[in-house]
Amino acid sequence: MLDGGLSNQLEHTGHDLGDALWSARLLADRPEAITAAHRAYADAGADVVITASYQATFEGFGRRGIDRGRAAELLRLSVRLARDAAGDGDGARRPRWVAASAGPYGAMLADGSEYRGRYGLGVRELERFHRPRLEVLAEAAPDVFALETVPDVDEARALLRAVRGLGVPAWLSYSIAGGGTRAGQPLEEAFAVAADAEEVVAVGVNCCSPEDADAAVPVAARVTGKPVVVYPNSGERWDPAARAWRGPALFAPGRAGTWRDAGARLIGGCCRVGPGAIAQVAAELAGTP
């Protein structure tokens, strides 16, 4: 059982995330707020807590005048905060895992390109971007990497190369629209790049509509033979120009059983899915493997 959207929980408790660093800004300014947000999801029944490092990069921190040494400290701090909040479970459950989040290159740009991909960079350039922060996150000993919201097969290839040899398993999770990645590649092609990657323990989707997740889960299971990870948004649509969510919320905890039956073993929520919804999903899945 995964957690839900970190940013919406932080905003719910009064924090302004209208900054290019998004939730990563609070690693420097209000780390205790991040711990409290993680704890809300742990209390709701999440077994896996995802760190606040999605938009935490050396380049993004550098634009705020934070040098590489301090940026590395903040990356490691993201794992410690999640570990502190996760604790060892509540006694009746297995110990909780910490997943170190690594978002796409476009998240660092903070211009909406994370929803498009195709940045004009090759696989080697993207690997050089991702590898340094993954090395630092690995030093903090997370249980797993969350290579998440990946819009493009080329970036997925770069991330899979970047995690090699770090000694931390990973899940690879695409952001999708309809039957393809955000960059327009077929899902079969996208999932296939992880099928033989030894480091990858699960493949799936996040930061997408629940309907798109319904269709993607069985494809990921069939193409890779690996467990599937799925954590969609509420169903509302992010308007990057207006920096606002549009449309109705469609996330239904009852979908979790369908995803599980189709091969999902890591199930939760992304943007706009809060602790209440995660508690409902946990109840839906209670007593199942």
From TrEMBL:
NCBIfam families membership: PRK09485.1
SUPFAM superfamilies: Homocysteine S-methyltransferase
One of the record's GO molecular function terms: S-adenosylmethionine-homocysteine S-methyltransferase activity
Highest rank taxon of the organism: Bacteria
Cofactor(s) the protein needs: Zn(2+)
Protein name: Homocysteine S-methyltransferase
GO biological process, one term: methylation
